[in-house]
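Q: What structure does this chain adopt?
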Amino acid sequence: MRARIAAEAARVISESGIRDYAFARRKAAARFDARDPAALPDSEEIDIALREHQRLFQADEHPRTLQRLRRIALDAMRFFAEFSPRLVGAVLDGSADNHSAVCLHLFCDDVDAPVRFLDERKLRYDLRERRMRLGGEEREFTMLRFVAEDTTIDLTLFPENALHQPPLDPRTGRGMRRAAIEALELLLRSDEADTL
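A:
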């Protein structure tokens, strides 16, 4: 039952673009009328099922989509280079699809600096708050979101001293994996070699 619910949650995530694993788990459990918490897969099981779903049902499309999103991420990181950008999330871990945003962490002690940076370049964006666990406590961070090349770019702003202290990944409870520009360039070269 856990495997069936994980596969259904992966399908929901893949088809809807919603990256909320808890929501996908509830929706999948409801479909199978599963009420026993022991029958519900954890986020890691759903993540494995999502990758399997992509391998089976998006074998041709997924590598190209991922490569396109990683190129957009690299362009965005170069654009925001003065803020020491780090790529996080689905584009980095390889589970991204056409619905995925490029998620970057930016670092500066003046939270208004990235806002001014976008204003000076006349880029339209949404300003929001995002709650994340950092340093053992849940805190609110400024988030900027805009669209480039038909792709959502999601920026979360951190103080400079958080550069070497990643927030906790809500799916795993461990520190988020992050990649600097150089690491993403290597990843893209590896992607390109795999598609030859």
